[in-house]
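Subject: Sanity check before I submit

Could someone independently write out the structure tokens for this chain? I want to compare against mine line by line before I put it in a report. The sequence has 190 residues.
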Amino acid sequence: NAGRTLVVFPEGRLVQDHVEPRDSQGRWTSYDGRKNEPGERVAPFFSGVGRLVCFSGAAVLPCAHFGVDDILRAGADGTYNLSATQLRILGPANVAVHFGTPLDFKSRIAAFEEAHPQLTPFSEGIEAAAASGDYLGPEKRALYREITELVRAEVVRCHSEATRVAAAAAKAKARGVGSALIRDEPRSRK
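---
Independent answer below. Compare away.
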């Protein structure tokens, strides 16, 4: 609530766009065994996203990128170490970033609190919720998961758009028309 921006990768890692899916159904498996839907490149999210939203009251600006793994490579353990001494830039690549529609869950959180007056309000903070024992109760866990899945759905859409823009940039470059920046005008949703 300090007016700062917090960037999180709720999958617990950066997406490796050009690595083939890990099973025959096209599903990625996260290191803790969670799987995404067949064909999706975005892994399941940790529910901490929902918790952050509930306790901060902040809006979420979904964002996805495509092609970063052409510039950075994960280490043997699958993680990226972005320290200045270990950052390896692999060379030029088509990287696309797409920002989605801002998501505000204040009315959803207010409705939840109205429906569950026995639970500690989020505005009282994590410590108060933990002290009362309802921080990770089933009702709040369900809300955290619901919000997390709504955010993930928008990130999946953003990743599809970033993938589309990166493909257009690669085609333009192959035709000799490419530039360092391709501006993609927002599309209206149908």
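---
OP: Matches mine. For the report I'm noting this point. The mean pLDDT is 77.
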